[in-house]
Amino acid sequence: MFFRTLSGRFLLLTMIFVLLAEVLIFVPYVARYREDYLLTRVERAQIASLALLASDGQISDKLAEELLDTAGVYNVVLRRDAVRELVLSSPVPAPVSATYDLRDGSIWPLMRDGLAALFLPDNTVIRLIGDPVQEAGLLIEVTMNADPMRDSLQDYAMRILVLSLIISVATAALLFLAVQRLIVTPIRRVVRSMATYAKAPEDARSLIVPDSRVTELREAEEALLHLQEDLMKALRQKERLAQLGGAVARVSHDLRNILSTASLLADRIERSDDPKVARAAPKLLNSLSRAISLCESTLAFGKAEEPPPRLTQFALRPMVEDLVESETMATADGAQLVEFLVDVPPTLSLRADPEQIHRVLTNLVRNARQAIEATGKEGCIEVTARDAEDGTAIRVIDTGPGLPQRARENLFAAFQGGARKGGTGLGLVIAAELIRGHGGTLSLERSDADGTEFRILLPHAI
């Protein structure tokens, strides 16, 4: 619909406002026209009375009637002094319905009486009181029929309304064309540019070229251009990352197969009778296992193939004790630099996927252990768990050196949040996804020179 468009509504509002302005002008115009009309009748009536005065009252009834008809009145009373009055009269067909004193020039009564005069009934007789012109007396009173005044006033009002309508339509049309040229057309151009860009965001030819002469529209076009350029760069980066991810996935797949073969060979080397080979074989197996695990994690992350959690009820403390025992056995060269503390109530149980929770806790505890071992100093890792109103809170707290600033800023960003040399930054990303799959959150509570604290919040079972 036309009037639902910007230009249509602007056209309609312009016409309404112009008509409103014309109405505000119309009422004073009508009031002034009525006043002039009545003053003209008073002047004519005075001329007729002066003709009677000039003849010393010796005129025929027919001439008196002609004088009254010419003046358009029924009778005239001219008071020249306190005693003498000259009267020119004819039969009045109806009682006088209203008296108007033209000596009072207040605007509000004139406007009120002017509007009322447009709707006077037929055969209305009114009396007028005014001052004689040229100081020809003290007072003049006239009685007249209001029908001719009403008809003339209605005709004048109609002409004013038609003229107002023509002016409003012409003004609205000119403003409509101006708005179309200066505002609507540039806006449509911006919309077309957005639609074109949406169809082919990689095509640089679809970028808008700011050329509007209106400051606000020029700013909008420039903002859109910056947005399109930023989005184009982001899409290109996303495409390159997707290609890189595909390449990494293919390399990881092939590398995993190679490492699996190497792992089988390492198993045979472990059975060697050579003491040096026997001591080196476990380390080689551990390195190969970590490499295979990294390849599998990279493939799983790239394919987003993490299965949904299989929820079961299990006790948390035995799981924590088991992974702590495994990490204790895995300490570098058997050096007991790390002390493990478990503060988990024996009765605390979770409804979650045991395998996924084990992976998450193992990742956090192992990261903490490796960070402490890298310093060569003794440290402590504490795993606590408590039930709260909003869920079960599990905390992994260490006394290590804390995470670097860059690692904290990109902690849950793939391939960016690695805190140790050679890390990919996938461990925490996958851990956070596993916790989100349970409806919970994994967050870094603090990390400074006194250590690091991670918090897992798992909601209660529904």
TrEMBL record:
It comes from Pararhodobacter marinus. It comes from the Bacteria. The keyword Nucleotide-binding applies. One of its GO terms (molecular function) is phosphorelay sensor kinase activity. The chain crosses the membrane at residues 12-31, 156-179. Keywords: ATP-binding, Coiled coil, Kinase, Membrane, Nucleotide-binding, Phosphoprotein, Transferase, Transmembrane, Transmembrane helix, Two-component regulatory system. PANTHER family: PEROXIDE STRESS-ACTIVATED HISTIDINE KINASE MAK3, SENSOR HISTIDINE KINASE. This is histidine kinase.
